Amino acid sequence: MEPKRYVIGTAGHIDHGKTMLTRVLTGVNTDRLKEEQERNISIEPGFAPLTLPSGLTVSIIDVPGHEKLIRQMVAGVAGIDFVLLVVAADEGVMPQTREHLSILDLLGVKNGLLLLSKIDRADPDLLPIIEEDLRGLTRGTFLEGAPLLRISSATGEGIDHLLQVLDEKLPCIEQRKSEAPFRLPVDRSFIVKGAGTVVTGTVQSGSTGPGEELEVLPGGKRVKVRQAQVHSQTVPIVQAGQRAALNLSGINREEVFRGQTVVQPGIWSTSRRIDIRAVSLPELDFSLRQRSLVTLMIGTSEVFAELILYDRKEWKPGEEIYASLVLREPVVAAHGERFILRRPTPATTIGGGEVAEAAALKRKISPASAEEIRQVWVGGLTARILRALDRTLLLTFREIQSVSGEGEATLHAELKALEEAGRILPVASGFASVNTLTRIGEEMTDWLISYHREHPMIPGVPKAEWSARFLPDLDTKEVNTLLAMWEKRRMLIQRGEYISLHSFTPDLPARWKPAVAQVMNRLQREGWTPTEWETLLQEAGIPAKPGEDIRGYLIREATLVPLTEKLLMHREAYDRAVDLAAKTIRREGSLSMQLAKECFGLSRKYLVPLLELMDKKGITRRVGDKRILIQEEKASR
């Protein structure tokens, strides 16, 4: 059985005993920085392994408690499975106790314990009062009804009981998915002498190991894993839910920093606009208006963003909204990922929520846009896939995976179900939405009806123009696959390099048929010495533009044969000329220019293009100043 992986985080006001508790539990002083040790406060999240009595080893993250270090606190707890909310018994509930609890609730943490620390310093008579305050604080949150333990890191009181409770609670927590594409938000990067660049973070999804190629976003730098560690122990693979350190080649320390994300290449991308579901804290004493500047904290990233509201003029305390954030800097985000929003100044936690769509498009300011975001949110994986395919004609499996953030097995099963339900269609190397194909088919039909009405003599629209209009950005294989599908459904037909409706047949418009009959009769009479086409049109009263279409139509119908741009010969006359040339060559052995003049009685104006046309069509071949029959030449071989 695969070992279980959990990350525990501490939270609470500054100097309430979080770091001391971590040291007692793990034997590790997580205040590693010189400034932290000199000031006796945590500035950056600290990390240490904790082995429980059962033998289960978990990661513990000690986060800063100071109000000015909320960014570091959010970065630390963003990937935890279980929290220890620490409140000092000699001080009770304090401002950062409240803010940390709000942040944990907004980040979707579901499991934890309440710890009343420093009980050796407190008046025993006051402990029940402080505990009642703590119960009141957590009412309505995920910690309502959670076990409340009294501990002292100084004397060791309650520590063994805490370890026993952790051993009981942790195995009941659902494990993170390892099958999803690999993603690790970077919270630290540094140089190890002799090894190079190392990054650390909590693996949000997927797995990786030595030899694997990864990508650092934003930036797009490709790297390779030299070595992977979990709590200083070299391992063959790191997985979702583990605190990991990756030694990377191909990147300098200065090129990777907290806020970036190490990901599986070709799956993840950065976002500058995200659609969100969010809720504001009910205790706020202010509202946010359209395009208010906020600070977005997601993963280990912190960026400024503009809030776009669709169904209201302001976001009031305690309200749930479906909105968008326009980011000043790109981030890596996934559907369902939790985030925190803060007011930049004065710095205050506003609320938080989840990402509905990580690669959002610009929307109209309308309640319908908010509803659309809500539908995407509640619709789950099916809705995300269909929305992505509705926006883009064709997506590869990898592109769909980047939208869904799901593992291959889950995604293959969902795509198969959608295909069986008739909602998507495999196309060459990707997938298309049946709704999208139907919509394009309807647009294409309407457009071709108009095109055929305007150009009744042309067999259709040139294929290149058709594909550029309706199937932009698709390669030849993908275009041909869709064309074959529409041909099978008897919607379209390809005639040479032309595309038309299946029901369409090119024909002369009734208004031009009498004039064309007049032209054809004359050409039939003139035989091998036709009048120039422009003159024929003028005499028949046919304007130049329809005359050009008529010319093309008659050539494609093989009724006329073009000698030159200006000279067109009736098919019957041309066939007689070919027959005469063939008989003469068989009789004389070849056809010289002089002999041709005697046979046809034509001037060079007509004779030269006629003979060259026979060469072009593969009837004759010129050898020196004579012509021979190609058919006879092949037969002699």
UniProtKB/TrEMBL annotation:
- Give a yes or no for keyword Oxidoreductase in this entry: no
What does the organism's lineage look like at the top?
Bacteria, Bacillati, Bacillota, Bacilli, Bacillales
InterPro entries noted in UniProt: Beta-barrel_SelB, EF-Tu_GTPase, EFTu-like_2, Elong_fac_SelB-wing-hlx_typ-2, P-loop_NTPase, SelB_WHD4, T_Tr_GTP-bd_dom, Transl_B-barrel_sf
Gene Ontology terms: cellular component: cytoplasm
Indicate what this protein is called per its UniProt record: Selenocysteine-specific elongation factor
Asked if Cytoplasm is a keyword of the record, the answer is yes
Q: What is the purpose of this protein?
A: Translation factor necessary for the incorporation of selenocysteine into proteins. It probably replaces EF-Tu for the insertion of selenocysteine directed by the UGA codon. SelB binds GTP and GDP.
Q: Which UniProt keywords apply?
A: Cytoplasm, Elongation factor, GTP-binding, Nucleotide-binding, Protein biosynthesis
In the record, what terms sit under GO molecular function? GTP binding; GTPase activity; RNA binding; translation elongation factor activity
Segments forming domain Tr-type G: 3-176
- Annotated organism of origin: Kroppenstedtia eburnea
Q: Where in the cell is it found?
A: Cytoplasm
Extract the coiled-coil ranges from the record: none
Which biological process annotations from GO are given for this protein? selenocysteine incorporation
